Amino acid sequence: MNIRRLLFAGLIVTCWVGAAVAQDLSVTAKPEQLGFSADRLKRITDTYQGYVDRGELPGAVMVIARNGKIAYAEAIGFQDREKKIAMKKDAIFRLASMTKPIVSVAAMMLVEEGKLDLLAPVSKYLPELKDVKVGGRGE
């Protein structure tokens, strides 16, 4: 499988997982059953609640899952702070440019597996870019 297909497949899987998690955010297992500490997970809630209380963050939804089971799901703060609409676990967020970090993580995973060489010319993986000319100063 070439690198483009692998990256695209990774992106699609990420979207599917996100959609599956968004459908039902009820905790499906006790954190300890999945290798998490309930006390340490509470620290996440407390930390983000502090951000909300200080006005640094309007709200957040946090989900931690392992092996397809949700160990932690919390909604903190507001969907609309001015209207005092509380954040819901199934809130929808704009992702903006989130594909960049997702693809970057996927690429670094390929580097770790030895399937992608960061020092290789991009044309090694995308042959159609082999003879692309980029304008520079004075051109």
Detailed description of the structure:
The chain is of the alpha+beta class. It folds into two domains: 1-25 and 95-125, no CATH class; 26-89, no CATH class. It contains three helices and three strands. It has helices at residues 3-23, 38-53, 99-112, and strands at residues 59-66, 69-80, 85-86. It has a three-stranded antiparallel sheet with strand order 1-2-3. It starts with a helix and ends in a 27-residue tail after the last helix.
How would you sum up the major sheet?
3 strands, antiparallel
Shape: extended
For the secondary structure, the number of strands is: 3
Q: What's the total helix number?
A: 3
> Which stretches are poorly predicted, pLDDT < 50 over at least 5 residues?
none
Beta-strand residue percentage: 15-25%
C-alpha end-to-end distance: 38 Å
- Portion in helices: 25-40%
Q: Give the H and E element order.
A: HHEEEH
Radius of gyration: 20 Å
Structural class: alpha+beta
Give the assembly state of these chains.
Answer: single chain
Kindly give the count of domains. Answer: 2
Cross-sheet strand order for the largest sheet: 1-2-3
The averaged pLDDT comes out at 81
Draw up the topology in text:
Elements: H1 3-23, H2 38-53, E1 59-66, E2 69-80, E3 85-86, H3 99-112
Antiparallel strand pairs: 1-2, 2-3
Helix pairs in contact: 1-3
